[in-house]
Amino acid sequence: MFLLNLTPDKAFFPREVLCLLEKEGLRTEHFLFGTEGDMDNEGRFCSNWLAFDEKGLYVAFGSAQIGRKKGNKRLETAYSLTSLQSIPFTEIEELKTEKYVSTGRLIAVQDGEDVAVTRFSVGCLAAMDDFCRCFNEYKKKNDISAFGKLAKDRLYCPKCGTPFPKGQKVCPACSGEKSIVRRLFQFFGGYKRQVAALILFMLVSTGVTLVTPQISTRTLFDNVLNAGNTASAETIFKSLVYVVLAIFGIRFLSMIFSAANQYLLGSIMPRVIYDIKVKIFAAMQRLSVGFYSSKQTGSLMERVTRDANNIYWFFIDGLPYVIVSIITIVGVLGFMFAMSWQLTLIVLLMVPILWGCLLLGDKIFTRLHHRQWMYNAKLSSMVSDNINGQRIIKAFSKEDRELERFKGVSSGLLQSEMKLSNTEATLFPSIYAAASILTTVVLVAGSLLVLRGEMTLGSLLSFTVYLSMLQSPIEFFSWVSNWWARCVDSARRVFEIVDTEPEIVEKEAPAKLEDFRGDIEISELEFEYEPARPVIKRLNLRVKAGEMLGVVGKTGTGKTTIANLIARLYDAKAGTVKIDGVDVKDLPLKELRANIGLVSQDIYLFIGTIADNIRYANPGATMEQVIAAAKAASAHDFIMKLPDAYETRVGAGGQDLSGGERQRVSIARTIIQNPKILILDEATAAMDTATERNIQESLSGLKSGRTTISIAHRLSTLRDADMLAVIEDGQVTEYGSFVDLIRKKGEFYHLYQIQAEALKAVGIGD
Amino acid sequence: MATQTQTQNESETLFMKYVSPADCVFYKNPQGFLALTLRGENYGRVALTRALPLSMPDRYICITDMESNELGILESIADFPADIRVMMEEELKIRYYCPEITEILSVKEKMGFYYFDVKIKSFKKTVAVKDISRNIKQLGESRIMLTDADGNRYLIPDLAKVNKKSRQQIEPYLY
Fold first, then answer.
1. Distance, CA of A686 to CA of A664 (rounded, Å)
2. Does A743 share its domain with A669?
């Protein structure tokens, strides 16, 4: 066994698996790379281990049974091997993956033909793809140092055996909740004294409420309104007055403490929530563009507002009541016991039954409420869809059909609401009936005790008062666990954002660029948004400082992606983007982005005035500069036509500008930014050629020393380019000056011809 | 002149010509993949994709070569002889295969993740689902698609056919 020689990062598989492979004669320490799949070639789930070394590719199938040995707390996995294939290294030309609907297949190319190796679930695609790339790199260059050991995500939690969702640092099934709760309470760390005072006040105010029945009922009935009281009418009257005064006194005290409670709570909670919200927002600002595009913005916004609110309401409403309820129950039971242990026993026996009924009712209601909520959500999204699409509905005359659809969904909602209210009508009275049975039993038993002289009337009466005090805390406890679960769930989602590591991270000690010239060099760039679907494949491009490069290509070939990668909004999978000879990953992010101006097709204008939007990059810009920038962007004229001119409010809920107008404002914004590198991504696509020409003229006036990359479909946009590049299928296929490319008669010439002919067909050109 | 070419193009694009079964010779290549000779030209390995995989799995099948160029569209698999049909169905089965859940043993919720203990034929698996509202989809009357936290998909082809316990376990999470 050579396992002892294996360095930890070379152990691609668990030790037991390596042993099994060694038994079959494989030298596992020679493995260069390995990965795991989950299916065999027939699509049956099993364990699948793949590895290669310089001699060949090894494909092993087997099984992994996770179980707990008797008496052993830790989980153990028993591995077994069912088959092992070896394919000689020299016979395989390359490995590739194919992605299907829910599965994928690993294919080896042998003698120019595709040969199936294994299949896997689509979740393994990224790992399989990495495996193929590693194999192919090794085949070509004999060098796989770039692959190192890709972080091996644990497949199963060692403590509880449940599958580990990808990207999680902690197993949610076992350790999650405690640490979330701890972190939640940490937010209160700065308010320790207030929290202590709060709890103290709650104790006092509840304690006071608990004492009340002793005086208002027991003492009143036993000592004052006692039929057998032989004291004089005057003494009785005086005692009555004292009792009433005592009651008022207690009430007053309780009121003061309650008010103090609310005041304290009101001073703590909003501050804690403020802290949480700021933390979330700060975390969101740190995250990269990739995070925002993968999660829908709707759910993110929901998170920030709704989850913070869930936490707030639980702590301000739920938690205090939990504390009060606990104190009440303990106190009440204590008093009850002191007055009559027999009755207390009866209560203790019957309460669990009541509790059980409440829990059952709660389960039923949660289900019904959920269904109703579902239909409501469906309905409101249908309505919103309908309102947004009115123009299309009218254009196709589909109003009647939309009405039918609405009726359909509404009737579903109707059914579920009726079911809910019917259930409420049956269930609630039943629960209350059960509760009143308890009271009746207590009264009957108590009456017997009183008749037998073992208990006073006053005691019995105050006992019933205490019993009624028990009811609401018990009811509360039956559904508070739901509330708590929702609060913890919200907290978990909040912490998920706070914990997510941003994808784009600035280097520890970023390089300092003395003089930002704007020389761009892209080499061997590779990028993909999703695993196994590369968008940029080994791209090489060079733009000299101060030069204008025109980029053309069909839709979806990766032109916008290049712009994103230069501005480091995403990090490339392989290859480098260098500015002035320094890798963008080594530059400080702020400086990098301040010097790159990116104008794209989708323009986002913030809520504010047009002037604010133009000034966004430099809030200190003077009005002269703003107007000059607007003039250069050919925006000044249309702005002046608006009633509020530069003070027109735009953005969500503000003035609606047309696509071309927004693009011009955005160009003005970039002019104020005055970046050394200007990337125009279809920036003038929504404008007519005359306006586009004007803008180009202004921009070229401002162009000296500025490196410009202009991405366009319309060749007229690239009129001023010094050099042109054609991007096809993620690579640069043609590069040169306008004359060079026309002479080449390649893709560029083809595009040029199509556009020229289109003009001819309308009778222009020739 | 411009209008004439226009109508000609219109008729070509609006009325699709199906590839007729007589022109297709499907066969299995030595490596076991489906291959096609169409109108005398051998394209080697081809892929079959369904235009309506949910409602009409055997009609409107697109044939593409390995470079994703479409070679034609078949109106219906039923137009082919039985032995060829078997080959085509096999290829489609591999492409469209989705693990099917035959039984749901339990559903536990922890920290917003839902752990489904399921049986896929005789294989037991625990599926971790995140963001449950987004990852359980009801496609049609009783067809349900479950996506786990790793991106793997699982299908319950007909909820009415699984046992009552399984149905009860999953019902609270359906839309």
1. 10
2. no
Q: Could you read off the pLDDT of B62-94 as tens digits, one per residue? A: 999 888 888 888 989 999 999 999 999 999 999
| Residue A753 belongs to some domain of the structure | yes
Q: Tell me the pLDDT band of A8, cut-offs 50, 70 and 90.
A: very low
A391 compared with A294, residue with greater pLDDT = A391
A26 lies in which domain range?
3-141
Q: Which amino acid is at A40?
A: D
pLDDT in tens, B91-109: 999 999 999 999 999 888 7
Among B33, B123, B130, the residue with its CB nearest the CB of A165 is B130
pLDDT at A296: 57
CATH number at residue A704: 3.40.50.300
What mean pLDDT is reported for chain A? 82
Domain co-membership, A134 together with A28: yes
Nearest to A187 by CA among A121, A272, A249, A264: A272
Return the bridge partners of A679, or none: A598, A709
A119, A176, A367: residue with CB nearest B110:
A176
pLDDT at B4: 46
Both A647 and A682 in one domain: the answer is no
Binned at pLDDT 50, 70 and 90, residue A119 comes out as very high
Q: For chain B, what are the domain ranges?
A: 2-96, 103-173
Asked if residue A128 and residue A94 are part of one domain, the reply reads: yes
Q: Are residues A710 and A634 in the same domain?
A: no
Contact A102 B123 (CB under 8 A): no
Q: What per-residue confidence (pLDDT) applies to B126?
A: 87
> Are residues A667 and A682 both part of a single domain?
no
For chain A, how many structural domains are there in total?
A: 3
- Closest by CA position to A667, among listed A705, A616, A718, A712: A616
- Residues of chain A contacting residue B130, judged by C-beta atoms under 8 Å apart: 165
CATH number at A114 reads 2.30.29
Say if residue A612 is in the same domain as residue A759: no
- Note whether A541 and A687 are same-domain residues: yes
Q: Stretch A263-284: mean pLDDT, rounded?
A: 85
Taking alpha carbons only, the member of A437, A432, A412, A428 closest to residue A364 is A428
Whether this prediction's pTM lies above 0.90 is answered by no
Q: At CB < 8 Å, which residues of chain B contact A?
A: 2, 29-33, 45, 53, 66, 94-99, 108, 110-113, 115, 120, 123, 125-128, 130-131, 134, 148-153, 155, 172, 175
Give the C-alpha separation, A656 to A218, whole Å: 73
pLDDT at A208: 84
Is the Cα dihedral A662, A667, A671, A677 positive or negative? positive
Identify the CA nearest to A745 among candidates A736, A612, B156.
Answer: A736
Task: Report the residue of chain A nearest B116, measured CA to CA.
Answer: A162
